[in-house]
Fold:
Amino acid sequence: GDSVTQMEGPVTLSEEACLTINCTYTATGYPSLFWYVQYPGEGLQLLLKATKADDKGSNKGFEATYRKETTSFHLEKGSVQVSDSAVYFCALNANNDMRFGAGTRLTVKP
Amino acid sequence: DSGVTQTPKHLITATGQRVTLRCSPRSGDLSVYWYQQSLDQGLQFLIQYYNGEERAKGNILERFSAQQFPDLHSELNLSSLELGDSALYFCASSVEGVYNEQFFGPGTRLTVL
Structure:
């Protein structure tokens, strides 16, 4: 069935470091792809999305490109801040069926 | 603010008891989803309702049940509670369509003592 695999955490970075969180997917159709973020004590919030191959989603300095050839949707940010500390979830929507990855915890130290 | 509301925010109860969690979706969203998030198992999909009808079932225990009412709010009923049911329970809502994301509520933290 459809599924999402994302890199295991936790990930610890210093402020202003570069971030990449890997996400790959398996889907029979043409899914839409999403990154959600969960800050401590809160629900999940949509960070960015891409609905077709080669689309790039971006928000708050984060970006991810829908790569059909490698079935990937890696999350990147050039310079992380302490306020980016959160859990990040990759997800796909295929046929109205949303699947989430296991989540990657990011801690950014000053 | 996602527009999805959940009550109560916190719930503390004892083993063997029954509780009801409530969710109001965003205005106009017909689909409601329930998820369980525990430390060791991540985000687990429980069940989806669409316009009052059950649409999809995930890893929902037989002790758990849900329904969606004509005004589209939904309730998740958890019975014969066990210590392992302690978790965050999230409700999400969406508009149908493969391009559309789900909007999550703030969650209900359930503690079973």
Q: What stands out?
A: The interface with chain A takes residues 2, 4, 31, 33, 42-43, 45, 56, 90, 92, 94, 96-107 of chain B (CB under 8 Å). The two ends of chain B are 31 Å apart (CA to CA). Chain B has a mean pLDDT of 94. The first strand of chain B starts at residue 5 and ends at 7.
